[in-house]
Amino acid sequence: IPSGSTSKTFTVQAVASGNVEDGQTATIMATCGGYQSAAFTYTLSSLPDAVTGVPQLQSAQPFGGQTVNVTIDVTNQGTSTMMPGMNVRFYLSETAKIRYSAGIPVLTQLAYYTLSEAVEPGETVPMTFAVTMPANQVTKQYYLFAWLNYEGSYAETNKGNGLSANTPVYIRPAFTLGSIATDKTTYEQGSTIQLSGQMSNAESGLSMEGKSVDVYLLDAAGQRRQVTTQLDAGGNFAATYKMPSLTGGAFLAGACVSG
Protein backbone atom coordinates (compact mmCIF):
# COMPACT_ATOMS: atom_id res chain seq x y z
CA ILE A 1 0.00 0.00 0.00
CA PRO A 2 1.64 3.28 -1.04
CA SER A 3 2.57 5.84 1.57
CA GLY A 4 -0.38 8.08 2.42
CA SER A 5 -2.95 5.60 1.06
CA THR A 6 -5.28 3.35 2.98
CA SER A 7 -5.91 0.83 0.19
CA LYS A 8 -4.56 -0.59 -3.03
CA THR A 9 -6.48 -2.13 -5.92
CA PHE A 10 -5.06 -5.14 -7.74
CA THR A 11 -6.31 -7.63 -10.34
CA VAL A 12 -6.70 -11.36 -9.77
CA GLN A 13 -6.64 -13.56 -12.88
CA ALA A 14 -8.20 -17.01 -12.54
CA VAL A 15 -6.21 -19.88 -14.06
CA ALA A 16 -8.15 -22.21 -16.38
CA SER A 17 -8.11 -25.77 -15.11
CA GLY A 18 -9.62 -27.42 -18.18
CA ASN A 19 -12.47 -28.84 -16.10
CA VAL A 20 -16.09 -27.69 -16.25
CA GLU A 21 -17.10 -27.60 -12.60
CA ASP A 22 -18.67 -25.17 -10.19
CA GLY A 23 -18.16 -24.01 -6.65
CA GLN A 24 -14.33 -23.66 -6.55
CA THR A 25 -13.39 -21.55 -3.54
CA ALA A 26 -10.45 -19.15 -3.51
CA THR A 27 -9.10 -17.26 -0.51
CA ILE A 28 -7.15 -14.00 -0.77
CA MET A 29 -5.07 -13.02 2.28
CA ALA A 30 -3.39 -9.73 3.13
CA THR A 31 -0.70 -9.37 5.80
CA CYS A 32 1.48 -6.50 6.96
CA GLY A 33 3.95 -6.29 9.83
CA GLY A 34 2.42 -4.71 12.88
CA TYR A 35 -1.16 -4.98 11.56
CA GLN A 36 -3.86 -7.59 11.86
CA SER A 37 -4.06 -9.83 8.81
CA ALA A 38 -7.28 -10.12 6.73
CA ALA A 39 -8.73 -12.70 4.39
CA PHE A 40 -11.45 -12.74 1.72
CA THR A 41 -13.06 -15.91 0.44
CA TYR A 42 -14.72 -16.05 -2.97
CA THR A 43 -16.45 -18.90 -4.81
CA LEU A 44 -15.40 -19.11 -8.44
CA SER A 45 -17.91 -20.27 -11.03
CA SER A 46 -16.91 -22.00 -14.24
CA LEU A 47 -20.40 -22.81 -15.56
CA PRO A 48 -22.63 -21.17 -18.15
CA ASP A 49 -25.72 -19.23 -17.09
CA ALA A 50 -28.48 -18.91 -19.69
CA VAL A 51 -31.22 -16.28 -19.75
CA THR A 52 -33.71 -15.49 -22.49
CA GLY A 53 -35.22 -12.32 -23.84
CA VAL A 54 -38.93 -11.74 -24.48
CA PRO A 55 -40.32 -14.11 -27.16
CA GLN A 56 -40.92 -12.38 -30.49
CA LEU A 57 -43.76 -13.84 -32.57
CA GLN A 58 -44.04 -13.89 -36.34
CA SER A 59 -47.64 -12.77 -35.79
CA ALA A 60 -49.08 -11.22 -32.62
CA GLN A 61 -52.58 -12.41 -33.63
CA PRO A 62 -52.18 -15.96 -34.93
CA PHE A 63 -55.05 -18.27 -35.76
CA GLY A 64 -55.92 -21.26 -33.63
CA GLY A 65 -53.95 -24.28 -34.86
CA GLN A 66 -51.53 -22.10 -36.82
CA THR A 67 -47.79 -22.77 -36.59
CA VAL A 68 -45.76 -19.56 -36.25
CA ASN A 69 -42.07 -18.78 -35.79
CA VAL A 70 -41.03 -17.55 -32.35
CA THR A 71 -37.59 -16.00 -31.82
CA ILE A 72 -35.81 -15.66 -28.48
CA ASP A 73 -32.44 -14.10 -27.67
CA VAL A 74 -30.43 -16.54 -25.55
CA THR A 75 -27.67 -14.88 -23.51
CA ASN A 76 -24.91 -16.69 -21.64
CA GLN A 77 -24.13 -14.73 -18.46
CA GLY A 78 -21.80 -17.42 -17.18
CA THR A 79 -18.06 -17.92 -17.40
CA SER A 80 -17.89 -20.96 -19.69
CA THR A 81 -19.38 -21.97 -23.03
CA MET A 82 -23.00 -23.11 -22.96
CA MET A 83 -22.77 -26.25 -25.07
CA PRO A 84 -25.76 -27.63 -27.04
CA GLY A 85 -28.19 -29.69 -24.97
CA MET A 86 -30.14 -27.22 -22.84
CA ASN A 87 -33.90 -27.40 -23.37
CA VAL A 88 -36.42 -24.62 -23.93
CA ARG A 89 -40.17 -24.88 -23.49
CA PHE A 90 -42.83 -22.50 -24.76
CA TYR A 91 -45.94 -21.98 -22.63
CA LEU A 92 -49.22 -20.09 -22.77
CA SER A 93 -50.74 -18.57 -19.67
CA GLU A 94 -54.19 -17.01 -19.27
CA THR A 95 -52.67 -14.44 -16.91
CA ALA A 96 -49.76 -12.03 -17.39
CA LYS A 97 -48.24 -13.33 -14.17
CA ILE A 98 -47.97 -17.11 -13.93
CA ARG A 99 -50.36 -18.64 -11.41
CA TYR A 100 -49.38 -21.65 -9.32
CA SER A 101 -51.55 -24.45 -7.98
CA ALA A 102 -50.04 -26.68 -5.29
CA GLY A 103 -46.62 -25.36 -6.34
CA ILE A 104 -47.09 -26.24 -10.02
CA PRO A 105 -47.34 -23.47 -12.66
CA VAL A 106 -50.72 -23.29 -14.41
CA LEU A 107 -49.52 -23.29 -18.02
CA THR A 108 -50.28 -24.85 -21.39
CA GLN A 109 -47.17 -26.25 -23.05
CA LEU A 110 -46.97 -25.52 -26.78
CA ALA A 111 -43.53 -26.78 -27.76
CA TYR A 112 -40.32 -28.34 -26.43
CA TYR A 113 -36.90 -28.07 -28.05
CA THR A 114 -33.29 -28.92 -27.27
CA LEU A 115 -30.89 -26.09 -28.15
CA SER A 116 -28.45 -27.09 -30.88
CA GLU A 117 -26.19 -24.02 -30.80
CA ALA A 118 -23.32 -23.22 -28.45
CA VAL A 119 -23.33 -19.80 -26.75
CA GLU A 120 -20.04 -18.30 -25.56
CA PRO A 121 -19.74 -16.31 -22.29
CA GLY A 122 -21.18 -12.83 -22.77
CA GLU A 123 -22.68 -13.76 -26.15
CA THR A 124 -26.32 -13.36 -27.19
CA VAL A 125 -27.64 -15.66 -29.92
CA PRO A 126 -31.10 -15.26 -31.51
CA MET A 127 -32.84 -18.63 -31.98
CA THR A 128 -36.07 -19.29 -33.87
CA PHE A 129 -38.52 -22.13 -33.23
CA ALA A 130 -41.80 -23.29 -34.78
CA VAL A 131 -44.65 -23.14 -32.26
CA THR A 132 -48.23 -24.28 -32.91
CA MET A 133 -51.07 -22.36 -31.28
CA PRO A 134 -54.01 -24.19 -29.63
CA ALA A 135 -57.11 -24.60 -31.81
CA ASN A 136 -59.23 -21.90 -30.16
CA GLN A 137 -62.72 -21.21 -31.48
CA VAL A 138 -63.13 -17.76 -29.94
CA THR A 139 -60.73 -14.80 -29.92
CA LYS A 140 -58.87 -14.80 -26.63
CA GLN A 141 -55.80 -13.13 -25.17
CA TYR A 142 -53.00 -15.24 -23.75
CA TYR A 143 -49.43 -14.60 -22.63
CA LEU A 144 -46.52 -16.48 -24.17
CA PHE A 145 -43.47 -17.45 -22.09
CA ALA A 146 -40.18 -19.14 -22.95
CA TRP A 147 -38.54 -21.18 -20.19
CA LEU A 148 -34.93 -22.35 -20.42
CA ASN A 149 -33.79 -25.36 -18.39
CA TYR A 150 -37.23 -25.80 -16.84
CA GLU A 151 -36.34 -29.15 -15.23
CA GLY A 152 -32.95 -27.90 -14.03
CA SER A 153 -31.20 -30.88 -15.64
CA TYR A 154 -28.55 -28.75 -17.39
CA ALA A 155 -25.60 -27.69 -15.20
CA GLU A 156 -25.45 -23.89 -14.95
CA THR A 157 -24.69 -21.28 -12.32
CA ASN A 158 -28.28 -20.19 -11.75
CA LYS A 159 -31.07 -22.61 -12.63
CA GLY A 160 -33.79 -20.22 -11.51
CA ASN A 161 -33.47 -17.41 -14.05
CA GLY A 162 -34.47 -19.13 -17.29
CA LEU A 163 -38.06 -17.83 -17.45
CA SER A 164 -38.68 -14.99 -19.89
CA ALA A 165 -41.00 -12.04 -19.53
CA ASN A 166 -44.33 -12.53 -21.29
CA THR A 167 -45.51 -11.56 -24.77
CA PRO A 168 -49.27 -10.94 -25.23
CA VAL A 169 -50.86 -13.17 -27.90
CA TYR A 170 -54.37 -12.84 -29.36
CA ILE A 171 -55.48 -16.17 -30.81
CA ARG A 172 -58.24 -15.98 -33.42
CA PRO A 173 -60.48 -18.81 -34.64
CA ALA A 174 -59.16 -20.32 -37.86
CA PHE A 175 -62.58 -21.43 -39.07
CA THR A 176 -66.03 -19.83 -38.95
CA LEU A 177 -69.46 -21.27 -39.63
CA GLY A 178 -70.55 -20.41 -43.15
CA SER A 179 -73.89 -22.21 -43.18
CA ILE A 180 -75.93 -24.92 -41.48
CA ALA A 181 -79.29 -26.45 -42.35
CA THR A 182 -81.63 -29.28 -41.36
CA ASP A 183 -83.50 -31.55 -43.74
CA LYS A 184 -86.87 -30.39 -42.30
CA THR A 185 -88.19 -27.63 -40.07
CA THR A 186 -90.56 -29.77 -38.00
CA TYR A 187 -89.96 -33.22 -36.50
CA GLU A 188 -91.86 -35.82 -34.53
CA GLN A 189 -90.58 -36.70 -31.08
CA GLY A 190 -87.88 -39.38 -31.26
CA SER A 191 -87.21 -38.81 -34.96
CA THR A 192 -83.80 -38.37 -36.62
CA ILE A 193 -82.56 -34.96 -37.70
CA GLN A 194 -80.24 -34.62 -40.69
CA LEU A 195 -77.86 -31.65 -40.36
CA SER A 196 -75.42 -30.35 -42.95
CA GLY A 197 -73.36 -27.24 -43.48
CA GLN A 198 -70.03 -25.71 -44.30
CA MET A 199 -67.19 -24.11 -42.34
CA SER A 200 -65.12 -21.29 -43.82
CA ASN A 201 -61.36 -20.69 -43.68
CA ALA A 202 -61.51 -17.46 -45.66
CA GLU A 203 -59.35 -15.54 -43.17
CA SER A 204 -56.80 -18.12 -42.08
CA GLY A 205 -56.40 -20.19 -45.25
CA LEU A 206 -55.58 -23.22 -43.07
CA SER A 207 -56.49 -26.71 -44.23
CA MET A 208 -59.92 -27.92 -43.10
CA GLU A 209 -59.84 -31.51 -44.33
CA GLY A 210 -60.19 -34.02 -41.51
CA LYS A 211 -60.82 -31.42 -38.80
CA SER A 212 -63.35 -32.51 -36.19
CA VAL A 213 -66.48 -30.38 -35.96
CA ASP A 214 -69.14 -30.40 -33.23
CA VAL A 215 -72.66 -30.08 -34.67
CA TYR A 216 -75.16 -29.16 -31.96
CA LEU A 217 -78.77 -28.38 -31.12
CA LEU A 218 -79.51 -25.80 -28.44
CA ASP A 219 -82.88 -25.73 -26.67
CA ALA A 220 -84.57 -22.76 -24.98
CA ALA A 221 -83.03 -23.69 -21.60
CA GLY A 222 -79.53 -23.61 -23.04
CA GLN A 223 -79.05 -27.38 -22.97
CA ARG A 224 -76.73 -28.49 -25.74
CA ARG A 225 -76.98 -31.79 -27.60
CA GLN A 226 -74.19 -32.50 -30.03
CA VAL A 227 -72.57 -35.02 -32.34
CA THR A 228 -69.05 -34.87 -33.73
CA THR A 229 -68.15 -35.39 -37.38
CA GLN A 230 -65.36 -34.35 -39.74
CA LEU A 231 -64.88 -31.71 -42.42
CA ASP A 232 -63.95 -32.54 -45.99
CA ALA A 233 -61.41 -30.53 -47.98
CA GLY A 234 -64.05 -27.91 -48.81
CA GLY A 235 -65.17 -27.53 -45.19
CA ASN A 236 -68.46 -29.40 -45.72
CA PHE A 237 -69.94 -31.56 -42.99
CA ALA A 238 -72.98 -33.75 -42.39
CA ALA A 239 -74.36 -35.38 -39.24
CA THR A 240 -77.46 -37.09 -37.89
CA TYR A 241 -78.97 -36.76 -34.44
CA LYS A 242 -81.81 -38.85 -33.02
CA MET A 243 -83.95 -36.81 -30.65
CA PRO A 244 -84.85 -38.55 -27.38
CA SER A 245 -88.46 -39.57 -26.94
CA LEU A 246 -90.71 -37.07 -25.13
CA THR A 247 -88.40 -34.22 -26.16
CA GLY A 248 -89.99 -31.24 -27.87
CA GLY A 249 -89.79 -27.50 -28.34
CA ALA A 250 -87.81 -25.10 -30.51
CA PHE A 251 -84.10 -25.65 -31.13
CA LEU A 252 -81.25 -23.68 -32.66
CA ALA A 253 -78.69 -25.55 -34.78
CA GLY A 254 -75.00 -24.63 -34.85
CA ALA A 255 -71.51 -25.99 -35.40
CA CYS A 256 -67.91 -25.25 -34.38
CA VAL A 257 -64.57 -26.90 -34.90
CA SER A 258 -63.80 -29.12 -31.90
CA GLY A 259 -61.38 -27.74 -29.34
Which labels suit this protein?
18 strands, single chain
Question: In words, what does this structure look like?
Answer:
Helix content is 0%, strand content 46%. The protein is mainly β and 259 residues long. The strands form 6 sheets. Strands 3, 4, 5 and 10 form a 4-stranded antiparallel β-sheet that branches. It has a 4-stranded antiparallel β-sheet with strand order 9-6-11-12, with no helix packed on it. The relative contact order is 0.15. The mean pLDDT is 90.
Low-confidence stretches: none
Strand content: over 45%
| Distance from first to last alpha carbon | 73 Å
What is the count of β-strands?
18
The largest sheet is: 4 strands, antiparallel
Q: Mean of residue pLDDT?
A: 90
Task: State the order of secondary-structure elements, H for helix, E for strand.
Answer: EEEEEEEEEEEEEEEEEE
Determine the number of helices (DSSP H or I, runs of at least 4 residues).
0
- Apparent shape: elongated
Helix content: under 10%
Structural category is mainly beta
Secondary structure elements and pairings:
Elements: E1 22-30, E2 38-45, E3 50-52, E4 56-57, E5 67-76, E6 87-93, E7 100-101, E8 104-105, E9 108-114, E10 124-132, E11 140-148, E12 167-171, E13 176-182, E14 192-200, E15 212-219, E16 224-230, E17 236-242, E18 251-257
Antiparallel strand pairs: 1-2, 3-5, 4-5, 5-10, 6-9, 6-11, 7-8, 11-12, 13-14, 14-17, 15-16, 15-18
